[in-house]
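Troubleshooting: if your tokenizer reports a length mismatch, compare your output against this known-good record of 46 residues.
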Amino acid sequence: TIAAAADKAGDGVDINEDIFASADYRRHLAQVFTRRAIKAALQRAR
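Known-good structure output:
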């Protein structure tokens, strides 16, 4: 599913943390952007 793919987006990736964003927040963003990209690709394919 799209949700499962988005959840896996941050797995196995070394996400750096700095003063601007925590690693957890960046992992969350990776999931959000992956979900959006998959949905956009599905829309274009239709």
